[in-house]
Design goal:
The chain is α/β, with parallel strands linked by helices. The chain has helices spanning 33-48, 60-72, 92-95, 115-118, 123-126, 128-134, 167-173, 179-190, 237-249, 300-311, 332-335, and strands at 15-21, 52-57, 80-84, 98-102, 105-112, 141-149, 156-157, 162-166, 194-198, 216-220, 223-227, 259-263, 285-287, 290-295, 316-321, 337-340. The protein has a single domain (15-340), classed as L-arginine/glycine Amidinotransferase, Chain A. A 4-stranded mixed β-sheet has the order 3-2-1-16. A 3-stranded mixed β-sheet has the order 4-5-6, covered by helices on one side. The mean pLDDT is 96.
């Protein structure tokens, strides 16, 4: 079959950088900034072992602090770049650019970002892609504003025209559209040949209305890694088992089922007020040569690393401490957005 002229590349395809935004006292991280910065240092350190990290900072003062912390951890300066730009929050998976490849370079799809259904302030985050583009961050690219609410964490592509989504999330954003209408809109905008939906599975503490990147991820065109639960007394046990049955019933375009890789279930983690936090191993990040895995200081960390090593046999699995991050309802993948190779300007 002839490859389409416009493609939505899979995350495992070659990259030029990973972009993320540094936490600071003006964000919701303020009360736990020191512990969160420790995770950020580890995350940027892991990324720069393999490729460039593009770090957004709001001003020179935050840039100086981030530079100092990263230098103290021996993060290679040659693979570290900063850009000053304003932002409300640091979840760049959802406010950052969704990049398509076309014969002329790249299309940066700038979807409307409304903070997961107007849950939080988001005016600056909604302008993030426009402002990054204006600062000359991207090469061989043009920006397309799309008047449609969509976050990067809500979609998974196999790079070959299949999109995987959770129905509850997209339906919550667009309650006036039925499944056929939503499928058509997503397929046309993202240049996909089909959209696969799942309906079950959601994590306590997740305020995104069931983003797919906390639940099920493509590891290859024929493989899906998913969060499972083996504790029958946990309230997630039934919904995640139902999700696994849904995934097992999905088929590739050639009719064959997907290979499934269930991830282990970490022990429950609660905030100081007793609120359960969303610790998902499915929130990993693929970079050139590696898979960066969220680690939660849990015995299941090692089991999750072994599962990911089987799912990605040609990549290193690098654990990154993410326990401080889930306090704000997300993890490693939620903080980051990969840029396809060739997109980052020299």
């Amino acid at each position: 079959m002839t490859a389409p002229a416009v493609r939505f590349p899979a995350e495992w395809e070659p990259q030029s950088a990973v972009v993320l935004a540094w936490p600071h006292a003006g964000t919701d991280w303020a009360t736990r900034l020191a512990s969160v910065e420790t995770s950020y240092v580890a995350l940027v350190g892991a990324i720069t072992r393999f490729q460039t990290a593009l770090v957004c900072v709001p001003d020179a003062q935050v840039r100086e602090r981030a530079t100092h912390l990263l230098a103290g951890a021996d993060v290679p300066a040659a693979r570290l770049r900063f850009v000053e730009v304003e932002y409300d929050d640091t979840w760049l998976r959802d406010s950052g650019p969704i990049s398509l490849c076309d014969p002329h370079g790249f299309r940066l799809l700038d979807f409307r970002f409304n903070a997961w259904g107007d849950k939080y302030a988001s005016a600056r985050d909604d302008r993030l892609i426009e402002n990054l583009f204006a600062r000359g961050v991207f090469a061989h690219a043009h920006r397309e504003r799309v008047d449609f609410a969509l976050e990067g964490g809500a979609i998974e592509t196999d790079g070959d025209g299949t999109l995987l989504c959770h129905w509850h999330c997209l339906h919550t954003r667009h309650p006036d559209l039925d499944r056929s209408e939503l499928s058509t809109r997503l397929a046309e905008t993202l240049h996909q040949r089909r959209v696969l939906w799942i309906e079950h599975g959601a994590l306590d503490g997740d305020d995104t209305d069931a983003h797919i990147d906390t639940l099920a991820r493509f590891a290859a065109p024929d493989a899906i890694v998913h969060q499972a639960c083996d504790d029958a007394d946990d309230p997630h046990y039934g919904p995640l088992a139902a999700m696994e049955r849904e995934l097992a019933a999905l088929h590739r375009m050639d009719g064959r089922p997907y290979r499934l890789f269930p991830l282990p279930w970490p022990r429950p983690i609660h905030d100081d007020d007793g609120r359960r936090l969303a610790a998902s191993y499915a929130n990993f990040l693929i970079v050139d040569g590696a898979v960066l895995m969220p680690a939660y200081d849990d015995p299941a960390d090692a089991v999750a690393a072994a599962v990911l090593a089987r799912a990605f046999p040609d990549r290193q699995v690098v654990p990154v401490p993410c326990r401080p991050l889930i306090w704000q309802n997300g993890s490693l993948h939620c903080l980051t957005m990969q840029l396809p190779r060739g997109l980052l300007a020299a």
